[in-house]
Write a structure and sequence with these properties.
It is a single chain. The chain is an alpha+beta fold. 42% of the residues lie in helices and 17% in strands. The protein has helices at residues 14-32, 76-110, 125-148, 167-177, 309-321, 339-344, 346-366, 369-389, 400-432; strands spanning 154-159, 163-164, 197-200, 208-210, 217-223, 227-243, 249-265, 268-271, 282-284, 295-296, 324-325, 329-334. The strands form 3 sheets. The protein has an 8-stranded antiparallel beta sheet with strand order 6-7-5-8-4-9-3-10, with no helix packed on it. Strands 1-12 form a two-stranded antiparallel sheet. The chain has a two-stranded antiparallel ribbon with strand order 2-11. The relative contact order is 0.21.
C-alpha cells in the first residue's frame, strides 16, 4: 500500500474561522472592556485612567485600518494598524490551537485512546490541548515500543508550508503611516531579495518550483518531499515496478526519492542542471521571463518612504498573518528492512496513514509557521504599547475615551493570542518528542 501523504483534513471556511475568533473576543469582553488593565502589563499606563463606556469598534473580521476609533487624526493610522494586527493574530492563534488540539485528538483516538478517558473528558480550551496531546504522546509511545519501531526503522520527513507575503497588503498599511504622503513606495519586486521573489513563470524557472501536498508541482530534480513519478535513485515508499538493489525503483516511485525525481513533487523541487525548468506551480528565485504575478517569500525589505517604526512593525505582522501558504506535509519514509512487512500489515499501514495526516499540523505548529507567527504577534503587541503609551496623558489624551477603552480590548486580544500560540507550540512538542530519532 502506498504511503502517499494525503491532504490535511478540510478546515472550516473563513466565516467559521472568523466566528470562532470572534467568540474568543466576545468571551474576553466582559473581563476587559470596562475594567482597568493590569498595572504591570504592557499597557499599564492606561490603568489609572477612568474610562467611560466600552469598546464596540474592535471587530474581528472587519477592516479596522479604516475604522474611526475616535482617536486623534495624527495617530489614527498607526492605531488602526495595531488594531488590525491584534484582530488578525487572534484569528491565527485560534486556528493554530484548534489545529493542534484536533490533530492530537485524532492521533490519540486512532492509536487506541478513548473519548471517555478521564484525562481528556470534559476538557476545553488550553486544558483540552494539553490533555489530548499528552494522551496522544502516551498512545504513540506504546505503539512505537510495541509494534512500529520493532518492525523496522522509518523516518518522518516534514515539508513545511511555503508562504508568500502580498506586498499590496503591507504597502497599503504603510501608506497610511508614512510621514510623507507624496512619497511613492517601491514595488514588491524591488523590496524583495531576488532569491525570495515568487511568481508564476511562463519561461524557464531558474530557481525552485514550489509544490504542495494538495497541488504537487512538476519536477525534474531533487524533491524535498514526496515524489510521484520516476526516481533515479532510492525510493522509500511504494514502487510500482521492480525494486532493484539498494532500493532503486525501476518504475513509478510513490514516496521519498533520494535521487532525481521525474514527475511531480509535493514540496520544493530543485532542478537538475540539464532540466528544462518548466514549473506549473509558483517559481521562487528566478525566471527567464517576467513573472506574471509577484509575491515575496519573506518579509519585505524596509520601505523607502518614512514610516513610524511601531506602525511598520504592525504592518509587517499583518502581512505575515495574511500571507498565502501551501499545505505542509509529512512523508513516512520506510527503510529497506521493513518494506515487505509493512506492505503486508494493514494495521501498521493504518497507523502510518494517520501519522501522515496529523503530524503536519503538529510540526507546522512546533517547527514551521507557529514560532514565526508567535514572534510576529509579540513584536506587534510590543509595538502597540509604543503607539498608545504616550497618548493617554492629559484629560483625554490623543486616544480619547473610546480609543482608551479599545486599547484595553486590543491588549486583551494580543495577550490571548500570545497565550494560544504558546500553548499550541508547547502541546505539539509533547507529541513530537515521542517520535523516534531518524536513522
Amino acid at each position: 500500500m502506498p504511503t502517499t501523504a494525503a491532504p490535511p483534513s478540510p478546515r472550516p471556511d473563513d466565516r467559521v474561522r472568523v466566528a470562532t475568533a470572534l467568540a474568543v473576543a466576545i468571551a474576553l469582553a466582559p473581563l476587559t472592556q470596562c475594567k482597568p488593565p493590569d498595572k504591570n502589563g504592557a499597557f499599564g499606563a492606561l490603568a489609572p485612567k477612568e474610562v467611560a463606556g466600552c469598546c464596540t469598534d474592535f471587530r474581528i473580521g472587519y477592516d479596522m485600518m479604516v475604522t474611526d476609533f475616535g482617536v486623534d487624526p495624527g495617530i489614527r493610522a498607526p492605531y488602526g494598524a495595531f488594531a488590525q494586527a491584534m484582530g488578525d493574530y487572534v484569528v491565527m492563534s485560534t486556528r493554530l490551537l484548534d489545529d493542534v488540539t484536533g490533530a492530537c485528538r485524532n492521533l490519540a483516538l486512532d492509536f487506541g485512546g478513548k473519548e471517555e478517558d478521564p484525562s481528556v473528558h470534559g476538557r476545553s480550551g488550553s486544558e483540552a490541548s494539553y490533555a489530548w496531546c499528552n494522551l496522544a504522546a502516551r498512545r504513540l509511545q506504546d505503539a512505537f515500543t510495541d509494534s512500529l519501531q520493532p518492525a523496522g526503522h522509518f523516518n518522518a520527513h516534514f515539508a513545511p508550508a511555503d508562504c508568500w507575503v502580498d506586498g499590496s497588503i503591507v504597502g497599503r498599511c504603510e501608506a497610511g503611516c508614512t510621514a510623507d504622503t507624496s512619497c511613492e513606495e517601491k514595488q514588491t519586486a524591488d523590496r524583495c531579495d531576488k532569491e525570495q521573489i515568487v511568481g508564476m513563470c511562463t519561461g524557464k524557472c531558474t530557481g525552485t518550483c514550489q509544490g504542495s501536498a494538495i497541488v504537487p508541482a512538476s519536477c525534474e530534480g531533487t524533491c524535498d518531499a514526496e515524489c510521484e513519478g520516476a526516481c533515479a535513485g532510492s525510493c522509500y515508499g511504494s514502487c510500482e515496478g521492480v525494486i532493484q538493489a539498494g532500493g532503486r525503483c525501476r518504475g513509478v516511485c510513490m514516496g521519498t526519492c533520494e535521487g532525481v525525481c521525474k514527475g511531480r513533487c509535493t514540496g520544493v523541487c530543485h532542478y537538475a542542471k540539464a532540466a528544462a525548468g518548466k514549473c506549473d506551480g509558483p517559481c521562487r528565485g528566478g525566471c527567464s521571463t517576467p513573472y506574471t504575478t509577484v509575491k515575496c517569500a519573506t518579509d519585505l525589505n524596509a520601505p523607502k518612504c518614512p514610516v513610524d517604526g511601531a506602525c511598520e512593525a504592525n504592518c509587517k505582522a499583518i502581512g505575515q498573518a495574511r500571507a498565502s501558504c501551501s499545505a505542509p506535509s509529512v512523508t513516512i519514509a520506510l527503510g529497506d528492512d521493513i518494506s515487505k512487512e509493512i506492505s503486508a500489515d494493514m494495521g501498521i499501514q493504518t497507523k502510518l496513514r494517520t501519522l501522515e495526516l496529523n503530524l503536519p499540523k503538529l510540526m507546522a505548529a512546533a517547527q514551521g509557521r507557529g514560532p514565526q507567527l508567535e514572534a510576529e504577534a509579540k513584536a506587534a503587541y510590543e509595538a502597540g504599547d509604543k503607539i498608545v503609551a504616550d497618548k493617554v496623558r492629559g484629560a483625554e489624551g490623543k486616544l480619547g475615551l473610546k480609543g482608551s477603552a479599545c486599547a484595553r480590548v486590543m491588549q486583551a486580544a494580543g495577550e490571548q493570542s500570545l497565550q494560544d500560540f504558546h500553548v499550541a507550540i508547547d502541546a505539539a512538542r509533547i507529541v513530537l518528542r515521542t517520535l523516534p530519532t531518524p536513522k
